[in-house]
Amino acid sequence: MILNKDTAKKTAELLLQVKAIKLNPNEPFNWASGWKSPIYCDNRVTLSYPPVRVFLKEEIAKIVENNYGKPDVIAGVATGAIAIGILVAQELGVPFIYVRPEPKKHGRKNQIEGHLESGQNVVVIEDLISTGNSSLNAVDALKEAGAVVKGMVAIFSYGFDIAEQNFKSKNVALATLSNYENLLEQALDSNYITDKELIMLHEWRRNPNTWKQ
């Protein structure tokens, strides 16, 4: 869910500017899943640009407070959202924890790193939503530990139907600063892509698993 159109466009503009998101429909990227994709997103790049990371931190913090109230704890999803999660927690003045994809095989065998008490209100921070499976895995781990998960806020979402279905099935509220549709609008407005490339990018969005196979 996009809450503010201006924020969505501005976020997309910044992600393109610092090359956290790259669009190349003519020479697509190969995802680990085997899909060919005209888009590649690595929001960790934003951490190298202080004005960008400050913007993201402040906008996410606003959404957290406006949507869920001030939580007891902010949780980042490892590894991509650890840094931005810490920044948001610092902005809100609340503790931070992070959630691994699975428990460690050694030591204390933690999946959740940091101090969490049963019954605490938690908002989860994510950098990127694709299918939503890894994000929701983190939510499950938090709930199993007794946390009350109020919702999740992410920087960017591809907007796949499967992600929307997955979040609905788990009854987890999701808000994102920007998404694929707003990205394409901004990319076209700034002449980052042509009208012909826009058509190709929309085609991928409709059938990402079979595009250019």
Mean pLDDT metric: 94
Evaluate the radius of gyration.
Answer: 17 Å
Quickly give the structural class: alpha/beta
Q: Largest beta sheet, briefly? A: 6 strands, mixed
Tally of alpha and pi helices: 7
User: How far apart lie the N and C ends?
Assistant: 30 Å
Task: Tell me the number of strands.
Answer: 10
Strand content: 15-25%
SSE order in H/E notation?
Answer: HEEEEHEHEEEHEHEHH
Low-confidence blocks of residues = none
How does the overall form come out from the CA principal axes? globular
Helix content bin: 40-55%
Give the neighbour order of strands across the main sheet: 7-6-5-8-9-10
Short description:
The protein is of the alpha/beta class and 213 residues long. The protein has helices spanning 5-17, 50-68, 82-92, 133-144, 161-170, 180-189, 195-206; strands at residues 21-23, 29-30, 36-37, 39-41, 73-77, 96-99, 112-113, 121-129, 148-157, 174-179.
